[in-house]
Write a structure and sequence with these properties.
Blueprint: H1 2-8, H2 10-16, H3 20-30, H4 33-62
Helix pairs in contact: 1-2, 1-4, 2-3, 2-4, 3-4
Length: 66
């Protein structure tokens, strides 16, 4: 669901994740017709990186201490 929001409404995707300044910058980029595609790509990549960071944090937390 978040991936679809990131594609069709890139600035909303950043707002929902609490990145207000990034959402504002993305909105400015999205307002131009040419900038909408890079904004959507940026939002999807950022979303995927965020998911990877959370996954890595869970894996590190689950590792036994040596």
């Amino acid at each position: 669901m978040m991936t679809l929001i990131a594609i069709f409404f890139p600035c909303i995707s950043f707002l929902l994740r609490g990145k207000i300044l990034t959402a504002l910058l993305c909105l400015i980029l999205q307002l131009t017709l040419i900038g909408w595609l890079p904004a959507a790509i940026w939002a999807v990549i950022s979303l995927q990186n965020s998911r990877a960071d959370r996954r890595n944090a869970r894996l590190i937390k689950a590792m036994p201490n040596r």
